[in-house]
Amino acid sequence: MKFLFDNESFSFEMLRTAGYACYGGADLGEVLVTARGIPEGNEAVWHDRWKTVAERLDDIGRRALVAGHRASARDALLRATGYYRAADFYLREDPAHDPEVALLSRRVRDAFATAATLMDHPAEQVAIPFGDTVLPGYLFRPDDSDVARPTLIYHGGYNSILEEAYFAAAAGAVRRGYNCLTFDGPGQGAVLRDQQLHFRLDWETIVSAVADFAVKRPEVDSRHIALMGTSFGGFLAARAAAFEHRLAAVILHNAIYDAYDGGTKNLPPGVLAAANDGQDAAVDEALAGPMAASTNLRWWVRNGMWAFGADTPAELYRMTKGYTLEGIAGQISCPTLVLEAENDTAFRADALRLAEALNCPYEHILLTDAEGAGEHCHEGAMLAFHQHAFDWLDTVLAA
Length: 399
Hints:
By secondary structure, the protein is an alpha/beta fold.
């Protein structure tokens, strides 16, 4: 689905940004006018344009709050949240040491934290114990009663931040009477930026720590805790569900069976063999041209090196080689929703492959291009995605 750009990456990321409009994370006119000033593939202008509109809305929101216009302040700050995230997206040349990445990270957190205090339902910042540190999160609830409710634990994926989780899952969950507990894990958001903790294969240890935190809350019905992960998070959630058996259900959005295969399938011939042989300089040389020509490949490699803590592309490929559900998917015991997107070329076959490996009750749902939901993670079709996901979850938990 081409949206405003011919550049595949820009088109998808613009669709992702605009798609959060249904929950207040964007406004269509702002998206269109911002896109109009961005040349095809120009990452520097993309950053400048989105930062400018985010700062304008941040200022509007702060001034509206001082004036007592709480709803207007909330709405402006939620949109600023979405646009700060977009402004940061392509800043991946040296993100660990880029002061602009640090600045945008602070601003997106501040904007959302203020907006959260203005929501019509409780939105509580939480700190989830994990080893010798804590994971930042939010607990969103439909109301301020102490009634124990079914609760969705939600995390993102390869490039997600905690604040995006509200638009991606929590807003839809709260509308339907669920609590939603969101968090940044290693490799994500503030945990990567501030704590320098990187992705780890044993994601079940993170989800188990979050579940430990959840079951101690009086507002959480410990018999009805579900898990959902988005994009690369669909792989991570499946991995976690294979080992954490307190989950009543898991939603894989989208399903990924082998993250390594999907992330490396379009590389030039010989690159993976050279990486596995430790020929890092040869891999750098082989990728120089393709990375210069492809926004997608350049971003994927640079973001992955940061999130996994790799020094070279070759090291990134070696580190991700074990990210497969081979021999693991069959250990998932809870009901599982396997979501698939028709146009998701990188992981198109993974949903069926995963479904065939499951031994638990499952449903496999394909969302199509014809219904506007065929892009990876159904970007641009949030309401359709939430309809399928939460209607399934309602049915499973009721049973």
